[in-house]
């Protein structure tokens, strides 16, 4: 199938080769597009969060390898540079490795000897396959996660997990959208997600497009909202899941998990199996990206702190597995979230070969 993506589009010649990205830094004020005609432009776009979100970074990384191959660049060097563009999201390196493996494999034929174009087409085909698989995974996660949503649910979410971060409807947002379409969603509570406001700018933009009733709240208001009994379920995504089940996600997620536990509200993570990395043994081993102080000290082009103020600006935090009620993947539900239960998933995101179908589909594993 051909996947239509909100965040990314590939351009063939004569207009390309190029990758066209919806500039997420400009939303919701303007829907503008950035055309990347070479790998350095793509790496800069990834670093500036023009394109972002774990599954979409995997897709973008794979298309980046295809772009390097189509340009007849040093593909090995380009792949290394793309994979290093952001350190926390495991999907980026996973997507790069898959496209690179396809490019390498195309060179192994001896009769006839594959051309550079043949190898580039192999990398592009793998990138498109990754996008199609991600769209299918999104739909499956929505089906599995819908069973966790009670009628009349009020769901609290953090950061952005919709079509902007996926080739499909998203991860946690895919479940939210399914609940809305099934008539089970009363209200979506959207954390603003400081410092870059991915919730207020992006999730609210997607919710409005989908006709979902929603309200944006300051991150610091989540505690009182939970205390008032206004939340039935917390749904988030993930950028990396360690072997012990610890989840790295947008900073502020850990605090929500603690609050949810205190108020006896289920805290559910929705992520494709490509986000599971058995090469990272535990939460303490996850590399957390730290970003520039200006993202905290400035807002909308205006300083909100005195000049020269230092800032603590981790892009992610790590939630221990024992605070997670369940993990929703395209292969089913994992509960409790433990290393033993995760291994039923088969091949994790740390592998080049992608996920395999070994999880208990649509069931809670206890």
Q: What do these coordinates show?
A:
The chain contains eleven helices and 16 strands. It has 366 residues and is an alpha/beta fold. It has two domains: 8-134, translation initiation factor eif-2b, domain 1 (Four Helix Bundle (Hemerythrin (Met), subunit A)); 138-345, Translation initiation factor eif-2b, domain 2 (Rossmann fold, 3-Layer(aba) Sandwich). It has a seven-stranded mixed beta sheet. It has a four-stranded mixed beta sheet with strand order 11-8-9-14, with helices on one face. Strand 12 and strand 13 form a beta hairpin.
Question: Which residues sit in consecutive blocks of at least 5 with pLDDT less than 50?
Answer: 347-366
Written as H for each helix and E for each strand, in order along the chain, the element string is EEEHHHHHEHEHEHEEEHEEHEEEEEH
Radius of gyration: 20 Å
Measured between the Cα atoms of the first and last residue, the distance is: 35 Å
